[in-house]
């Protein structure tokens, strides 16, 4: 949500694709107001789309360039990338189909980003394993994602770490208001 606000503040239009049902315009308003920004001016630059299925999620990317409301968006935020994939193609028996569908979706986003100069910001789920944490989508996501950040809330601050971790890759931001 902060990325959408910052883009709007810079005069850019963004598309917020919500697969979780967690988007709240009043939250954007309160975040903007807390920074002394005019929320009404900024909210007009954030286009919201709720997608409840794989087909809706894929169609949103495929038709973005021809839809008047989304054709001028320069930032696309997908919250959460793999939710619909995990729901519709759950279990180990669907692993191949799930990874294949995810690959098609990521390829469509990469194509759109290249053709129309859009930036994509994806949030994703993580499974906490015994040896290490694993991002849902595994190697399929890793192959087409340019950079990954892990965000951890620490008291009133948020720590952002580049994944894989490297030297000087951790930044601590505060106060914690990151959504």
Question: Would you write up a description of this structure?
Answer:
This protein has 179 residues and is of the alpha/beta class. The protein folds into 2 domains: 145 residues, Rossmann fold; 32 residues, no CATH class. It has 7 helices and 9 strands, in the order αβααβαβααβββαβββ. The strands form 3 sheets. The chain has a 4-stranded parallel beta sheet, with helices on one face. The chain has a 3-stranded antiparallel beta sheet with strand order 7-8-9, with no helix packed on it. A hairpin with a 2-residue loop joins strand 7 and strand 8. Helix 4 packs parallel to helix 6. The longest helix is centred in the middle third of the chain and has 22 residues. The chain is globular and about 50 Å long. It starts with a helix and ends in a 6-residue tail after the last strand.
């Amino acid at each position: 949500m902060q990325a959408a606000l910052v883009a709007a503040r810079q005069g850019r239009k963004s598309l917020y694709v919500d697969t979780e049902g967690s988007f709240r315009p009043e939250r954007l308003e309160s975040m903007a107001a807390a920074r002394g920004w005019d929320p009404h001016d900024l909210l007009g630059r954030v286009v919201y789309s709720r997608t409840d299925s794989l087909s809706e999620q894929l169609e949103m990317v495929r038709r973005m360039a021809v839809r008047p409301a989304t054709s001028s968006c320069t930032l696309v935020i997908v919250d959460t990338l793999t939710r619909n994939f995990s729901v519709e193609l759950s279990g180990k028996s669907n692993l191949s189909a799930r990874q294949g569908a995810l690959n098609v979706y990521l390829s469509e986003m990469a194509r759109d980003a290249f053709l129309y100069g859009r930036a994509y910001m994806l949030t994703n789920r993580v499974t906490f394993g015994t040896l290490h944490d694993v991002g849902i989508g595994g190697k399929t996501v890793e192959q087409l994602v340019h950079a990954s950040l892990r965000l951890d809330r620490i008291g009133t601050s948020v720590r952002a770490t580049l994944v894989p971790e490297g030297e000087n890759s951790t930044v601590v931001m505060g106060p914690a208001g990151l959504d």
